[in-house]
Structure formats: C-alpha cells, structure tokens
C-alpha cells in the first residue's frame, strides 16, 4: 500500500484545528503539522514537505491565507485547498488567482473533506505529470532541432567543399594551358637574352622562367588533387632503377638545400630495379625533399634507400622544426598545414598527393617526428618485379 497523503493544516482557531487533525488522522491521512499563521505554514511546508495544504483563508497576522497559498503554489509547488467560513468578495477574488485546488465551506463534514483532498491531490499530480510531459517534449524537440541544424550545417559544409573542389578543378585546367604556352615563350626569350651583355636582364629573365615553373607546379598539384578526387589518377608503371632516380631527384635539391644551409646526402645501393611509375615516384620524392628543405631549418638532410625482394624502403629525414603531436595525424590530409602560411609557403597538398601516389602503388607512407628535432618520412613500396608486372 502506498504511504498516506501528508497534509499540513493551517488554521488559527485551535478547536477547529484539533477537530481537523482528529478527522484527518481518522480517515487515514498523516497530518504533518497544524499551525496558525502564514509564516509558520511556509516554514513547516518547507521542512516537512506535505502533499497538500489545508488553508484557512482568513488568517490573522500580516499575511493572510491567500498570501500564504500564493507562496505555497509559486515557490513550493504545493496544492492548496482553502477552508472558508465567510469571505468577502475581494478576498475570494484574490484567492481565485492563486489557483486553489478546492474550497471547503465551513462547516463541512468528513466526507466532503476527504473528497476535496483526494480530488486536489490527484489533480495536482496529473497537472505535474502533464507539465513534466511537456518539459520532456520540449527537451526532445530541442535535441531534434539541434540534430537537424547539425545535419543542415554538415550538408552546407559538404556542398561548400564540393563547390571548392569543382572550382579548383576547372580553374587548374583553365590555367594549365596558357601557363605552359607562356613558359615556352619565355624560355625562348631566355635563350635570346642569354647572349646579351646585360647581366640584370639575364637574371630577371631567369627569375621569370623559374617563377613560371613554380606556378605550373602549383597548378599541377591542384590538377592532381582533382584527378585523385575523381578517381582518375592512373599509373604508368615501367621498369627502372630507383637508386638512379633518387640520386637524380636529390641532385635537383642540392642547390636549394645549400641555399638554406642544409647538406643533402643520399645513401642508396648501386642499383635497385623494380616496376613503378617513375614520374609519380619522382613526384613523391620531390614533395618529401621540398618539405625537408623548407622545414629543415638548415640542418642536414638524408635520403636513404633500401630494398629486399618484396619491397623497397625510402626514407627522407631532416632535423628541422618537426611536427607537433596534435598536427601529425592530419599532415597527409588535403590543404592541411601544421605551420603558418605566411612563414612557410605552400598549399598543404604535397603530402596528400604523395600519400595518394604511394597508396596507388600499393605502398604506405608514414612519418615520425619530434618538434624541434626533425621529421622522418618513410615510404614503403612493394617491389613489383618486371615479370610480375607483365602478368
Ligand atoms: N619535413 C617536415 N618537417 C616539418 N613539418 C612538415 C614536414 N613536412 C611536412 N610538414 C608539415 O606538414 C604540412 C603539410 O605538408 P605538405 O607538403 O602537404 O604541404 P606544404 O608543404 O605546406 O604545401 P605544398 O607541399 O602543397 O607546397 C606542412 O605545411 C608542414 O606543416
Ligand atoms: Mg610540401
């Protein structure tokens, strides 16, 4: 059986209060308190937490029953049933505003009292459940609204990325052709200018050729990204000596490395023949060496090549600025950079492209790095033998 309802009796006429207590207890209710003033009533309600308050409307003192009932309702969320013998119309009007759960007109009998209490408690419980239900509904709606908003944002972000990719793809295609034409023209110009006595002219022309070359490389990177995104990155595998290729690529970086204060050495076996796409392997090594020079802080750079029957291992190690722990996971992502753009140029595409190319060969690329100590990039390529590639 559930516990009896707990009732607080607020009645300043002692005899009536005693009567009520006896009657309530007789009917199986628990009377938490009988008090005679509004203050005591509020105090007792806070401490003893009754289920219902029976409140005489005409209490003596600075606060009458109506004022006390208002506090019970608004601050303690307790249902109040008014007891009233005679009340003037203004008091009753005030009483109505406090949303009482019932009125009992004195004198009342025990049956009336019990019915009023039961109705009040049930109505109050129903009201509370309804409020809880509404609150839960509102909370659920808020969660759903947030999920919808997130989905909308996600969709918008995806669309923005798609628009960006589309733009890059079109822009790089459109740029490539005039740039190549320009390079050819300027190279022709350079040959003529080479014979000139004007050293500044020769230098300037050489710089234009160099910068145009760089611009074309950037555009090529963007084109590669579009191709990779569209699944159009195709390999043209052929047999070649990787040792020779590594030495050749490294030779291209001797001068830039020296300008940065870095030494660059290559440790490779005499020959390491296999079947890969030479242009793409060149590109991987070029991207890694470009980074090693750029982020190498003028310290020594080393390229090491080893191979067995199954695979080759290509390592590019520098002792430069390194990569922080929180960035290391994202350096192979598109447009991800771990350094400020203004300090070190670049689009953040080199490693993304390198990884795609290595993986297209069935290989793997990893990095080990310590900030301030340097970075080591390790590329593993399966060593397709000439005969296995033919089959
Ligand atoms: N050897 C390295 N040492 C330290 N940080 C590196 C090194 N290589 C790459 N990183 C970090 O990883 C980021 C991504 O490298 P990635 O080569 O993809 O881009 P990038 O060099 O900035 O630009 P891009 O190669 O497109 O010209 C770099 O911006 C840099 O923060
Ligand atoms: Mg790079």
Q: Main sheet: which strands, in order across?
A: 2-1-3-4-5
- Beta percentage is 15-25%
Q: Give the C-alpha Rg.
A: 43 Å
- Largest sheet report: 5 strands, parallel
Q: How many strand segments?
A: 12
Give a list of the ligands: adenosine-5'-triphosphate, magnesium ion
Order of helices and strands: EHEHEHEHEHHEHEEHEEHHEEH
Count of discrete alpha- or pi-helical segments spanning 4 or more residues: 11
Q: What would you call the structural class?
A: alpha/beta
- Which regions contain 5 or more consecutive residues with pLDDT less than 50? none
Task: Tell me, rounded to a whole number, the average pLDDT.
Answer: 90
* Overall outline: rod-shaped
Helix content: 40-55%
Q: Could you tell me how far the N terminus lies from the C terminus, measured between alpha carbons in angstroms? A: 84 Å
Overview of this structure, please?
The protein has helices at 14-26, 38-48, 65-74, 89-97, 110-194, 199-229, 242-259, 278-294, 325-328, 350-360, 386-390, and strands at residues 6-10, 30-35, 52-56, 80-84, 102-105, 238-241, 264-267, 273-276, 301-307, 311-317, 364-370, 374-382. It is built from 11 helices and 12 strands. Helices cover 55% and strands 17% of the residues. The chain has a 5-stranded parallel β-sheet, with helices on both faces. A 5-stranded mixed β-sheet has the order 7-9-10-12-11. The protein is α/β, with parallel strands linked by helices. Strand 1 (6-10), helix 1 (14-26) and strand 2 (30-35) form a beta-alpha-beta unit. It is rod-shaped and about 125 Å long. Helix 3 packs parallel to helix 4 and helix 5 (110-194) runs antiparallel to helix 6. Adenosine-5'-triphosphate binds next to helix 8 and helix 10.
